[in-house]
Design a protein that fits this description.
Number of helices: 0
Number of strands: 19
Strand content: 25-35%
Strand order of the largest sheet: 3-19-5-7-13
Structural class: mainly beta
Number of domains: 2
Largest sheet: 5 strands, antiparallel
Length: 272
């Protein structure tokens, strides 16, 4: 192996390492012999100054920490609310899960002392009220510096669950789709929420739909209704951009609410 050791003086920054590998002599390597040669370049982004979390703001301004020369920006759209479910007597109801927000990531170089960007953090949507009520929509997260423009979109709302007396397992509340994303080096759509499911062939249960995952975070858990716990609301998403879980009701005349979606986020890694 050539160039197997190197020195770094105090205060210096390693930006790349070239590793050259040459074929080995027969018998000098345990296991499979090395048969190829090449160079592997390992490139870093410099020293990490800090991480900024932008959790609120509409048309707000981001200014980098002094000494920043490059940034890695992650944006997540708002999650949507899960559906509520209708009141029932001897029947079942289960709301659909809300869709998760989209995710995008962009590495930006050439950040100078005069660099600024404008951003908006997407809001999470409210869960549907008890009854056959859809959840509410979240909103989009955006980031622009005049050259780079990132958009992480909110997902779609979870549908309300109707009361059903079906004896077999039945898809009930319709889930919301995940939001898209654009402008990044990496763009990921949020996950679609889950269907509400109910019926006495699954053990006299009504299960709301799970909240859709955002690009990198989980959504809310669904309500699960049984004879012991006939009404259970969907859980609000605890992680950025997650969709809310759907509510569930079984043989109860009050219905159940869906969980709220979580607000979006912008996370910025600042490098010197």
């Amino acid at each position: 192996m050539a160039n197997s050791a190197f020195d770094v003086n105090n205060g210096a920054t390693v930006t790349s390492v070239a590793l050259s590998i040459s074929p080995a002599a027969a018998g000098s390597v345990s296991g499979s012999p090395v048969t190829n040669s090449g160079t592997l370049a390992l490139t870093t982004k410099g020293n990490l100054i800090g991480v900024r979390y932008l959790t609120s703001g509409t048309g707000a301004t981001y200014t980098p920490t002094a000494g920043t020369t490059s940034i890695l920006v992650e944006a997540i759209g708002g999650g949507c609310g899960g559906g509520g479910t209708a009141s029932t007597t001897v029947t079942f109801g289960a709301g659909g899960g809300g869709g998760g927000g989209g995710y995008c990531q962009k590495y930006i170089t050439g950040v100078t002392g005069g660099y600024t960007a404008t951003y908006t953090i997407g809001a999470g949507g409210a869960g549907g009220a008890a009854g056959n009520n859809n959840g509410s929509a979240g909103t989009d997260t955006t980031y622009t510096d005049g050259t780079v423009s990132l958009s992480a979109l909110a997902g779609a709302v979870g549908g309300g669950g109707t009361a059903t007396g079906a004896s077999s397992a039945t898809l009930n509340g319709v889930p919301g789709g995940g939001g898209g994303a654009s402008g990044g080096d990496l763009n990921l759509s949020g996950a679609t929420g889950g269907y509400g499911i109910s019926g006495n062939t699954i053990g006299n249960l009504a299960v709301g739909g799970f909240g859709g995952q955002s690009g990198i975070f989980h959504g809310g858990t669904p309500g699960v209704a049984s004879t012991a716990t006939p009404t259970t609301g969907g859980t609000a998403a605890a992680n950025s951009g997650g969709g809310g879980g759907g509510g569930a009701s079984l043989g109860n005349n009050t219905g159940a609410a869906g969980g709220a979606g979580a607000a979006g986020l912008i996370r910025i890694f600042e490098y010197s």
